[in-house]
Amino acid sequence: MEFGAFKNRVMTSFHLDLNSYKEKQLKRRLDSYLGRLKIADYGELFNRMTVNRRSYEEFLDYLTINVSEFFRDPQRFNELQRVFIPGLANGKNQINVWSAACSNGSEPYSVAIIMEELGLSGRSKITATDIDRQILNKAEHAVYPRESLKNVSPDRLGRFFDRVGESFALKDAIKRKVAFKQHDLLAGEYDKHYDLILCRNVTIYFTKEAQEIIYRRFNSSLNNGGILFIGGSEMIFNYKELGYEKLSTCFYKKTAD
Ligand SMILES: C[S@@+](CC[C@H](N)C(=O)[O-])C[C@H]1O[C@@H](n2cnc3c(N)ncnc32)[C@H](O)[C@@H]1O
Fold first, then answer.
1. In the prediction, which pLDDT does 105 show?
2. Mean pLDDT value across residues 154-173
3. 73 by DSSP, 3-state: which?
4. Which residue of 55, 71, 108, 119 could cross-link 128, Cys pair, CB 3.0 to 4.6 Å?
5. Lateral strand order in the sheet of 143-144
């Protein structure tokens, strides 16, 4: 089976839009997956996935790059804590946060820690989503190796984590602040009325067209004045056209509808 036919059949059978991922990167990753399974043909992979749902989940888990860590880009998270969250909280009863493509949970839990430190835990609702069910299971488990925590200060480590052997388990008080669910940014419905959306280090894998659709949809999901927080290596060039004002590196504010 050709690569193009594989992508189309995956779309029809699994509603996974591989055409919205950057082609070269996707093909390289897929070819290395075939090598790993020691199969030569996309057709065989497709057949395996249709026969056994678990094969599809394993494929998805391999395809999606799940690298993440707490307070990724510490300077930006600092700014989020010092400037943007207090600004959003001002005069509001509830702050709604969406961590889209949250991977192993490091990102939404970092926000939950910030909320706790700012005394805003009781007034915030954090939803975290990812396409990959297997990584969401890890996120819900919330036990992390030291590498994920290199930006976590000793103070925070002591206050919010329990040591379990070589790993660190997030305390329940923070764990229960985040609700996880499976969601595909390229296909799912987008909820509304968010004050803060984090979507970091995932749109780099998507085509320009798909990126633009996603940023437009986030705009509709944000309340007026709500903030979109993107990754350090990402940039929204036509932000004005998409309904945003640029606040600083990585932060864009929704202008009024
Ligand atoms: C590199 S991680 C980024 C994690 C976190 N946002 C961060 O910056 O540390 C990318 C995540 O995007 C998820 N992902 C890939 N395609 C997706 C899609 N179509 N919809 C939702 N999540 C997706 C992957 O499963 C992966 O967990």
1. 98
2. 97
3. coil
4. 108
5. 143-144, 167-170, 161-164
